[in-house]
Amino acid sequence: MHEQKSNAWHLRDVILLTLTAILTGVIYFGVVFLYNGLTALLTPLGLAPFGNDLILGLWTMAAPLAACLLQKVGSATIGEILASAVEAILGGQWGISTLISGFVQGFGSELGFTFTAYKRYDMFSLSLSALTTTIVTFTWDLFREGYAAYHGWMIIALFFTRLLSIWLFGALLVHAVVSLLERSHMLRAE
Amino acid sequence: MNPTVLLVIVLICGVELSFTRVIAANVLVILVGLVIMLFRRANWRSYLRLFLLPLLPALGVWFSLAYFSVGHDIHFAWVLATRIYAYSFLGAIFTFSTTISETLASLEQNAHIPTTFVYGMLAALNFVPKIRSEVQKSKVSAQMRGITLHFWSPQLLFKGILAALNWSENLAEAMTSHGFAENQPRTHYSVIQIPWWNYLVSILVLAIFQMFIFTGLP
């Protein structure tokens, strides 16, 4: 099923990605409470950003999933932007500003597949994509979340926490789902 | 205001906020958001929501910057705490000024986003309740066989994606059979235009915003 696919976007693809975005939103809705609980616990210790980075992988999952489902150039970026639009529309906490982070995350994830020339959608590409997502979003958050102001040890610890989270959800979990889909022969080769 | 124009302004301000260390700019965004909400007669629950939801992240970032930033930078802690509120109110400025269908229609007509994306999204968004029940169904049917599916179980996502693959195929076919042609020019029942004063207002708004950012305010 790893033959090169056409890069045109069809109605079916857009609907599929939007449905997948809603689906992940529905499944992970409960995690927001977990996140809030974790943040509440960590806040008095001054370690709240770790709560954020620990579950960041959930918000960035849509990109590698879209890349594997459609295998097109740009599907990770567009998939993540669609997912953030869904989040903004369905009343996410940050409203329209999720579009900005959606673009940054999607672009970060896309790089992993670009580096493997859009030929591989296996654990290697997914892990590479997790790494590029972490590097891009972390660089962004050095400014946006003010990570640059922390002490060196905290910046390094935050980076690895984020990498772990994005790898667990964006590579390990996505890989498991995609292999289930491949075994069920439901991914249509175009 | 035209939703596309507003979206562009909001996104520009959002990106700029990410890189500035000006509390006044954050407060300005929050105040503008409040004025728009008052003007639109927002319900008290919206105010409460907008106050409470960002509270925890804002407190979290304030404490960690106060404890662990180089030199215990309290000013920067306030910048980030107010920035989190500013992001939420940026969202509010947009949601209280326009609706989703208006925005999507304007993105199609004014920003010329391909119709495949606009109508594809519109179609899929109606499926929220179906997806919710699908996830519930998968969980329950797994429980019937003595298996509990958690949010980290690949099976849960897998079953959902199977349903999504089916639905997307069916929906796309249904839309095509109702005469939807991908990215062909369409005529519109309600034509959305960008009034000339929108450009004036956006230049003014962005200019004022730059003044707040670049004139050395705290």
TrEMBL record, chain A:
<keyword id="KW-0472">Membrane</keyword>
<dbReference type="Pfam" id="PF09819">
    <property type="entry name" value="ABC_cobalt"/>
</dbReference>
<feature type="transmembrane region" description="Helical">
    <location>
        <begin position="82"/>
        <end position="104"/>
    </location>
</feature>
<keyword id="KW-1133">Transmembrane helix</keyword>
<feature type="transmembrane region" description="Helical">
    <location>
        <begin position="155"/>
        <end position="178"/>
    </location>
</feature>
<protein>
    <submittedName>
        <fullName>Uncharacterized protein</fullName>
    </submittedName>
</protein>
<keyword id="KW-0812">Transmembrane</keyword>
<feature type="transmembrane region" description="Helical">
    <location>
        <begin position="124"/>
        <end position="143"/>
    </location>
</feature>
<feature type="transmembrane region" description="Helical">
    <location>
        <begin position="54"/>
        <end position="70"/>
    </location>
</feature>
<feature type="transmembrane region" description="Helical">
    <location>
        <begin position="14"/>
        <end position="34"/>
    </location>
</feature>
<dbReference type="InterPro" id="IPR017195">
    <property type="entry name" value="ABC_thiamin-permease_prd"/>
</dbReference>
UniProtKB/TrEMBL annotation, chain B:
<keyword id="KW-1133">Transmembrane helix</keyword>
<protein>
    <submittedName>
        <fullName>Thiamin ABC transporter permease</fullName>
    </submittedName>
</protein>
<keyword id="KW-0812">Transmembrane</keyword>
<dbReference type="Pfam" id="PF02361">
    <property type="entry name" value="CbiQ"/>
</dbReference>
<feature type="transmembrane region" description="Helical">
    <location>
        <begin position="196"/>
        <end position="217"/>
    </location>
</feature>
<feature type="transmembrane region" description="Helical">
    <location>
        <begin position="76"/>
        <end position="96"/>
    </location>
</feature>
<feature type="transmembrane region" description="Helical">
    <location>
        <begin position="6"/>
        <end position="39"/>
    </location>
</feature>
<feature type="transmembrane region" description="Helical">
    <location>
        <begin position="51"/>
        <end position="70"/>
    </location>
</feature>
<keyword id="KW-0472">Membrane</keyword>
<dbReference type="InterPro" id="IPR003339">
    <property type="entry name" value="ABC/ECF_trnsptr_transmembrane"/>
</dbReference>
